[in-house]
Amino acid sequence: MLYRLSFIPILIFIAILFFLYSGLNKDPTLIPSPLIGKPMPEFSSPTLFDDNEITNQDLIGEIYILNVWGSWCYACSLEHNHLIDIYSRGTIKIYGLNYKDDKNSAINWLKERGNPYKKNIFDNNGNTAINLGVYGAPETFLINEKGIIIHKYVGPIDENYYNDVILPIINNE
For strand 139-143 and strand 64-69, is the pairing parallel, antiparallel, or unpaired? Predict the structure, then answer.
């Protein structure tokens, strides 16, 4: 009986190794979203520059990128030049969701670095982001012309991610 019990720690160790090893191949930026395939949550928020109200209904009719960002976000500064490049191509419109930010800091940040966004949703209280299931900034959503969320990415996007993932999705829509 004692002989059989000595295998229990070995089996537990093997099980732990299996779970650790299987986690090595997973991409931490691919966090599944329950909103994929569902409509963009309803919102009504002011825009960053002019305080005009913008709603989810205003964005229906074209495929677009919704990029969650903040002037306080270091990773957002890493992806910003890539967003400028995407904007300059003219292949897709980018809307910003300025998340839990100071309005003046956000405006100055865009004036200094350039503004790749067609419009910016000012979400200073974070309610719109919460309804989207945002964990933090940056996060990027791809939304089709019917207002359905078709892709989500957590972390800064770059040229490779745009070319290898986002562009093929756009071309297949």
Answer: antiparallel
Q: What pTM, to 2 d.p., does this model score?
A: 0.81
| Side chain identity at residue 113, one-letter code | R
pLDDT digits (tens, 9 = 90+) for 155-171: 999 999 999 999 999 88
Boundaries of domain holding 149: 32-172
**4: Cα within 13 Å, side-chain hemisphere:** 1
Band of residue 18 on the pLDDT scale cut at 50, 70, 90:
low
* Interstrand relation of 44-46 and 53-55 (parallel, antiparallel or unpaired): antiparallel
pLDDT classification of 95: cutoffs 50, 70, 90: very high
* Structural domains in the chain (count): 1
**Residue 123 and residue 98 in contact, taking contact as beta carbons nearer than 8 Å:** yes
Q: Which CATH number is 71's domain given?
A: 3.40.30.10
Q: Cα separation of 153 and 13, whole Å? A: 34
